[in-house]
Structure formats: structure tokens, C-alpha cells
Write a structure and sequence with these properties.
Oligomer: single chain
Strand order of the largest sheet: 9-4-1-11-10
Largest sheet: 5 strands, mixed
Number of domains: 3
Number of strands: 18
Shape: globular
Distance between the termini: 22 Å
Low-confidence stretches: none
Helix content: 25-40%
């Protein structure tokens, strides 16, 4: 599995991302070819090598002809990207990033998402940064992105609406749920474009993952900061882990006074609201009272909502939560042809691509059992013979 680790020790912005991607080896010609697929005019791109605090880096700058500058809202940008001949994955990544930006701006300004006018964020250079960055990720065959904790800078920045505090309101809105750290540096280190890019793509924020390093790319920012080099470092390599892992929350509570008729509906409700898994476990509590433990797994962004839901829907007066590490196999669902008809199966692999498990979808098995008038256990045994062939 190929990993890119974004080391944002000096923040992150659009042209730093593109500079780092080119420095990693993404061809300039491929970048320009991607940009030419967009319906954009009145710009030119300069790519050159610079030295920042003794470190060689790639600097990419988009020159805009502001006489022909075009104002765009989110709907305009979405349509612009959708109608191009870009790779489907590039389109998907780009639209997810712009959607995140649009939601943040809509929240801040109190308008509908399609009515958001992007000003700086929607300018030609930001469209180039986002679509070009998405194309580079696809072109470099990057499977997973990780990021360091973001340092945001401090002070004030001039923008379309006047002078605003750093971090800018859009940056803070985008980075809800993301670990950040303050900085004594009086500069805007993270722009809305950079924040949306890394928030949308990063699996985790924190330490560098276990990997074998292949390449290191440095993308230069426009600033010359006295204290640190104004660079984004992107480290490319192969994961050394056999399995994927992530940090998730365990949320649990013990209850001995809840109507069991209500309990039966809780499992589906919690799953609908974002729990990754839910268990209802019989327990004996104080005074030998029979009760249940509700135990669920959840990601950080769903933790508060699920805790609120437990208090709302049950009689508990106390909830425990703690962080755990979860290891998991890569999974995919695909349809296969069998002597009994088409069947969906779940294929589980390690990070090296080795198939460890193949299991049929139970609902498909039931349908084929009825169709062929076969006992379910017999069909299951015969299907497993076919699945063993697929694994081999």
C-alpha cells in the first residue's frame, strides 16, 4: 500500500501541495495536461527550483490576469469540474474538497451552499491547486494520505472581507475535529485550500506511519519566514504493516432499568447514526439485577452525537469512553459467477494483497437457496468449494 505523509511543519497551502507533488516526480507535462482540461483562461504557471533555509524545493506559482478574473460560486465550480474529461477519481477527490470548502463558507456567511461565492478560494489558482493536486495523487498511485498535526500561525490576514484573525474563520470551520497546534509565527500558515485538501484526504493526523521511504518532495511557499523554512514536506513510501489500523472510540454504558422492548430497537438506531459496531451484552449488576451493557465503536466525529443519543434514548445516567487501536483487513465487495448464479462476496486482504478470507453475502445465499430449492446449509457448503477456487 503506497502512503503519502504530509509533514506540515510550516503549514499547508495550494501551491505548496503542487510544488511538493512535482518535487516527488509527478511530471510537469502531466500537470499542465490536466489543467488544460479545465475551462480556465487568463493565467500562466511558473515552476522553478528554490532554496529555503538551505533546502532545495520546487516552487509553483500561478500568475493570474486579474483584468479577466471571473467570480464563481460553488455551483459554477462543480459544473466546471463535472463536465471535463478528467479521470473519474480526480473528479471525485476535487469535488469532495470543494464541497468541504463550500460547506465551511456557507456556515460562516449564513447562505445556501450553492450561493457561496468563493472569492480567494474560488479563484483560478485555487481550482488549479485542488484539481492539480488530486491528479498528482492519482498519478503517483497514492493509496492513503496521512498528515502531521497542523500548525496554524497567528496574527491577522487581509482578505476580501477586510482584515481577519489567523487562523481565518474558514480554516477553523474546515478543521473541526482535526488536531491542531498554536504557533508564535505571525503568518497565515494554513489556507482554506490547504486545510480542505488535507482534511478531505487524510486518514489520520499525527505521527508518521510505519513505512519504507521511497521519495521526499518539498513544496515551497511564497513567504520567507525567519524562524522556519516555508516548506511542505511530503514523504512517499510503502506501508510496512500487514494490516490497516486506526484509532477509534469505545463507548459503553450499563443499564438495569430499561424496557427490553426499547432495547431491541437501539442497535439499528445507533448504527444508523454512525456507530461502526454495536453490541448488547447481558450482564448482572448491583443487587444481582439482570441488565445490559451497550457497547459501540465510533470514530471521533461521531462520538459526541452517539453519547447524546444514548442519554436521550436510554435510562442511563453515566457513560464510559476510551480510545483503542483497531486493526483491520482491506475489504471489497464484488460479484462472482457460480454454478448457482451471480453472488456477492466479501474479499478480505492484507496490505500486501494476499487474500485471507472470502465470505458470501448471506442475503444472496438465501435467494439462491429458494431459487434452486436447496437447503441453505447445502448451498453454503457447495458455494464454499467455489470460493476456495477463487482464493487459490
Amino acid at each position: 500500500m503506497r502512503i503519502a505523509y504530509f509533514d506540515c511543519f510550516s503549514g499547508i497551502c495550494g501551491n505548496m501541495i503542487l510544488g511538493a507533488m512535482v518535487d516527488l516526480g509527478y511530471p510537469k507535462e502531466a500537470l499542465l495536461e490536466t489543467i488544460n482540461l479545465l475551462d480556465l483562461k487568463g493565467f500562466s504557471i511558473k515552476i522553478n527550483q528554490v532554496i529555503k533555509k538551505g533546502i532545495k524545493a520546487t516552487h509553483l506559482h500561478v500568475d493570474i490576469d486579474y483584468k479577466n478574473k471571473k467570480s464563481r460560486n460553488y455551483k459554477d465550480i462543480r459544473e466546471l469540474i463535472e463536465k471535463t474529461n478528467l479521470n473519474d477519481r480526480v473528479k471525485t477527490i476535487s469535488l469532495e474538497i470543494f464541497s468541504l470548502l463550500a460547506k465551511a463558507e456557507a456556515t460562516i456567511h449564513g447562505v445556501e451552499i450553492d450561493d457561496v461565492h468563493f472569492h480567494e478560494v474560488g479563484a483560478t489558482d485555487s481550482i488549479i491547486d485542488i484539481v492539480g493536486g488530486a491528479a498528482a495523487l492519482v498519478g503517483l498511485n497514492i493509496d492513503v494520505v496521512y498528515s502531521s498535526v497542523l500548525s496554524l500561525g497567528s496574527g491577522f490576514v487581509d482578505c476580501q472581507h477586510g482584515k481577519l484573525p489567523i487562523p481565518a474563520p474558514a480554516v477553523l470551520e474546515i478543521l473541526k475535529g482535526v488536531p491542531i497546534e498554536g504557533s508564535f509565527i505571525k503568518e497565515e500558515l494554513v489556507t482554506p485550500t490547504g486545510a480542505a485538501f488535507v482534511k478531505s484526504l487524510s486518514k489520520e493526523f499525527g505521527e508518521m506511519p510505519d513505512m519504507v521511504i521511497e521519495k521526499i518532495g518539498y513544496g515551497a511557499g511564497d513567504k520567507d519566514i525567519e524562524e522556519i523554512p516555508n516548506l511542505l514536506r511530503v514523504i512517499l513510501g510503502e506501508s510496512t504493516k500487514s494490516y490497516e489500523n486506526e484509532k477509534i472510540w469505545v463507548i459503553e454504558t450499563d443499564i438495569d432499568d430499561l424496557n427490553p422492548q426499547i432495547t431491541g430497537d437501539l442497535l439499528e438506531l445507533f448504527l444508523e447514526k454512525g456507530a461502526l459496531d454495536v453490541n448488547l451484552i447481558p450482564v448482572y449488576m448491583k443487587k444481582n439485577r439482570p441488565g445490559i451493557t451497550i457497547k459501540m465503536l465510533a470514530r471521533e466525529d461521531k462520538k459526541k452525537e452517539l453519547i447524546d443519543l444514548i442519554f436521550k434514548e436510554t435510562t442511563t445516567i453515566g457513560i464510559r469512553s476510551y480510545l483503542v487501536e483497531r486493526f483491520k483487513l482491506n475489504r471489497e465487495i464484488k460479484s462472482i459467477n457460480t454454478p448457482f448464479g451471480s453472488l456477492k462476496v466479501k474479499i478480505s486482504k492484507d496490505n500486501k494483497g494476499n487474500i485471507l478470507n472470502i465470505s458470501p453475502e448471506f442475503e444472496d445465499l438465501k435467494k439462491l437457496s429458494v431459487k434452486h430449492n436447496l437447503p441453505l446449509k447445502e448451498l453454503y457448503q457447495r458455494i464454499n468449494i467455489e470460493l476456495i477456487k477463487l482464493k487459490d
